[in-house]
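Re: Re: token formats

Sure, here are both.
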Amino acid sequence: MDTNKNNVAVSALYTAGTWQWARLPNADVVTPSDSEKIFRFVNRYLVWYRRLNPQTFSLRHQLLHRHAAIDYLLTHSGCTRTVEVACGFSPRGASFSANPAQEYIEIDLPDMIAFKRRQLEGSAEGQAILARENYTLCVGNILTLDFAKDFADRRTAVITEGLMMYFSREQQQPIWRSIAQLVTATDGLYVFDYIPLSEEPPRSWLGRLCHYFRVHVLRIKGDFAYDQRDRAAIADDLRSCGFGHVESFSTREIAKAWQLPESDVPSHTIIYCCRKATNPAAVSKEWV
């Protein structure tokens, strides 16, 4: 994954620029100044890419709808603690921790946490967020976290937004087993996004040719660890790891019902919502 001089992923800066562009609450407080430049640059490139692959969805709207859909599920979860792993420059923690009854823990790698802390320290609003007793920035790696051991004392939601596509199936499963133990113990919730290859928009013939040249000639394979599992197979894996009930939602299908911002713009990000075994009809009714 490409990083800047502060060892922060460029993708995290683009995503932060998206939240700032969409004027999400607290986005201005947590977003670094260089995000706007990266946001503009990537969008110029995407104009060309979408001409090459016209069925591709708008990336900024994909990210915006993903983020807002996760907010919706968290709001309706009934959880009083949230653990967001790979938080990046997400403004979610700053927003949800405004409620003193909600504990919010953000976890990321050391350079990312240090950068976000400096960003918050740079304004009076950010300093006030850092001073909240129910808001915590933590250094951690999802590959070594023991969720059930560290967070099992209250009803907890776990969020891994924009993360699971970087891990292979073999890497995902121990992570999911650890989170499932916590979700089962606390009647909590696990929410993440993952788009199976079978649901990615098809490339044009010229797009396929460029992709073949990039992967097989230039040997640039990218960071994502996608495989051939479809949505049902991923849900089966989640259940085998200990989640009793798994639902998946396409942002294209729920954008208007959940009142996502810019809902008239089509997107297709798949959001998975995982809980312990319960009455499926009762769970589904919560999201209507």
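Second one below.
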Amino acid sequence: MKIQPDRLKQLGTKIFSAAGCNDAEARRVAHYLVEANLVGHDSHGVIRILTYVDFIRSGRVVPNQTIEVLQENEVLAVVDGRFGLGQTIGEQAMQLGIDKSAQHGVAVIALRNAGHLGRIGDWPLMAARAGKISLHWVNTSGAGILVAPFGGINRRLSANPIAAAVPSKNGVPILMDISACTLAEGKIRVALNKGVPVPDGCIIDSKGQPTNDPKVFYNNPVGAILSIAGHKGYALGIIIEMLAGALTGGSCSDPKNAGRLANGMLAILLDPKFFLSEQEFYGEIERFVAYVKSSEKATADGEILMPGEIEERTKTRRLREGIELDETTWKQICQTCDSLGLGKEAAALAG
């Protein structure tokens, strides 16, 4: 079924409000989840509603939290998210970094104990829209252990996203948002809900054999996700654990923390105006983008895109056509609505 984004945001806001979030937080969480669907990252979209509400009910995530600044100076802050919803905690932490970098040219934010931060690309985009360059490394401290080490078959690392964005003077920011593993766990969940296989070379079963069956990943014993590019992605994942887990004061992946999903994020923000003039910076960005795109195309009808352009095109199309939800995901949303006394609201949206 297809649902218009605004209506889906309205339903999401009602769901999180009924689950215990204040009005501002309920709107914020719904906004970021629907935004993930809009740009084509369904793995981090409204498919997460059921999980987030379960987290709130069980006390693993605490609504309406504010970050606690544990240590700071002019350019650095170590902050604790106090297990608040990641869409709130992430926004607060990034605003602190934006403010510091605007004053001093650089900021380093070490965030620990945040609830699921959602689509990590949202945070460098927030910085880029404020005119800042930023780099982000993210891990989970326990419940998100999903990835086998290179040469092994058991889960030992989290998915370990890395994201960065560069502002653009007259266009959308250039955005990189990837993981050190072959695909996000949420994409396996999307495949499971849709009843389709995952791509080749992404996951293994509990014995280390390749599989395309998403159910195998969730079996008992469980399967695992593989690193991107073999040993290279594994090395990247290890470094991300060090930066986002150890350095933030949260934790690297640790089975002792498996009862609660908490994200750590190390973010570095840079304000270009402290380095060179705005004309010089944006002029070089425009020149380089044009140079890259001037390459001869691999196919007659092909084109060369900047990182982030596909997402913007997908957003434009889905704003016009609506967001497609598979039957299983919609059923889970409806079940969540029923449990919160919002069954009529879900039925009206489906109608």
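The two ends are 10 Å apart (CA to CA). The chain is about 40% helix and 15% strand.
- S.
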